[in-house]
């Protein structure tokens, strides 16, 4: 019989929930007020203090400036976020735009020129939202310029260059240690606590290293290559922006004090674009008004494909929101083509449940009305609140961010090889790559295109020979990449579902070379050379989103479906014995993860918990972190380390959490940018303490090094 679930709430979360429920702020800012000037405190004769900081990735992302500040390149950035979903050549939901300016007239009969194209973007159409309330005149001009020029609109085959990637032109060693570098102190003029403030050095190669202040405001960097760096506060948030260029670092030099001034005397911050861009998706959801039902529906329906910042930065009328909600909730998240209606029943064993592949009309209407109320053209702005800064043990961490050569990749997985390199996959392009953490230099490779299938890779695994294997979720191929030659061998996986439908994505590999995957109510053992299934075992659901193999190769672990799932199971690969459990009507949504040292599978929970299938009790246990506004946050993945602890990025927060299940102790580390869009955590157990890696969906690689 399936066992009931166990929910573990830390004491702190009850207080946090009470605070979150009591907050009722009306909307988010969309004004054009600029941050005030930063205090002028250069620590070197050549230093320059900036009024605004153009290195804030989240601001550049929110304002479509990842590629350029204006022109066709900026238009490409806007196209990726605003047009691609419907107008890419695989979706077939809107006309292709590549040759638009080669035609005399549009489908409406209007002539093809910048004026008519911009008018169409402004007003929309029967199946197209109106963008006049969410894109500026400049935005639409840049977008039209991109569509007009010859390179529009390559679909994932030639991603644009990242202007911030300079590792190949500015050779610079990246530190690996944790201490022994420059030190300093942060002071706050208002007398507020200086604890938990991130301080960052940006090296000439673009690599960013962030440390955090203790309760006295002191900070210490790792020992770094001597030279000039940019010194900045990566997320000033409640403080005036602070950045100083050309700060000379040499060993354990003592830096001048960093003095910060608050932007507001109250806890409510001005709703400016600069400040809003520094808040995580979870903080934005916390700030907007709405009922528990409205926010819960949003969290469950808008959790896995992109960050919530992409939703909340918009201002659409109700008609436009209705079109967007329909497009995003009623089409398969893994297809881009297939429209799904109603509900289906999944089963095949204990714990058969009904789940929704598509959102009901009633739920879609609730979401539409709510979004039009809180993010409509007339929504009123109120001061913004933010979550507390880290304290105590949570400040004892070094975070390093690496730039990649190209942008708009929609990064997915990261995995390390035995030489310390980090391999990553790109969900919407034909590009994959390898990072050398010692230099920040990236080697990129191209995965051959599959006719009729969108380019993009999902999982990456390293076999025992350090050969990377990449899955194609859209093309259903398994790709073996030779790092020496760059040659890619594609293997078509035997499948019973049609091309470009939900299919082969997550997989595991055992030391004997076999691939493990689930499909059609079966766990499958696959020969990677031929793509043929050599053995099958029955699953209790249609497919498990992740497919886990234990460290000793003895067990398989699987979770629920990518949305609304409530199951978890483990199989002894030698005996075929199963442990199966489900959480009933409560959807734990055990997505991706790994086995712990006790052979229990762990998963990131779509309902905001870390999910364990306890092999001794046969029960699903859920561990909720002390991160507000839990449970209105979620996890995509959870990864145990060799010490019995479990790590996971808060998918729509800015935190990397660390759980000791035996003691119940949580440590919640904060990241420099307001993202922890972590779909796969890689843990390097060769270091003491362990080193944690993930590739952020927003376009960069992150290394997290706890001090103890």
CATH class of one domain: Mainly Beta
Sequence stretches where pLDDT stays below 50 over 5 or more residues: 11-51, 334-357
Question: Strand order within the widest sheet?
Answer: 7-6-3-4-11-38-37-36
The Cα radius of gyration reads 25 Å
Written overview of the protein:
By secondary structure, the protein is α+β, with helices and mostly antiparallel strands. Among the domains are: 67-148, Cytochrome Bc1 Complex, Chain D, domain 2, CATH 1.10.760; 164-260, Immunoglobulins (Immunoglobulin-like), CATH 2.60.40; 271-374, no CATH class; 411-538, YVTN repeat-like/Quinoprotein amine dehydrogenase (Methylamine Dehydrogenase, Chain H, 7 Propeller). The chain contains 12 helices and 38 strands. An 8-stranded antiparallel sheet has the order 7-6-3-4-11-38-37-36, with no helix packed on it. A 5-stranded mixed sheet has the order 1-31-30-29-28, with no helix packed on it. The longest helix is centred in the middle third of the chain and has 14 residues, at 361-374. The protein is globular. Mean pLDDT is 87; it is low at 11-51 and 334-357.
Mind sketching the topology for me?
Layout: E1 6-8, H1 11-22, H2 57-62, H3 71-82, H4 84-87, H5 114-123, H6 137-148, E2 180-188, E3 198-202, E4 208-212, E5 218-222, E6 227-232, E7 243-249, E8 258-260, H7 273-276, H8 281-287, H9 292-301, H10 309-312, H11 318-329, E9 343-346, E10 353-356, H12 361-374, E11 397-403, E12 411-416, E13 422-426, E14 431-436, E15 441-446, E16 460-462, E17 468-471, E18 477-481, E19 488-492, E20 508-509, E21 515-519, E22 522-526, E23 533-538, E24 547-549, E25 555-558, E26 567-572, E27 578-582, E28 590-595, E29 601-605, E30 610-614, E31 619-623, E32 639-640, E33 646-649, E34 655-660, E35 665-670, E36 682-684, E37 691-696, E38 700-706
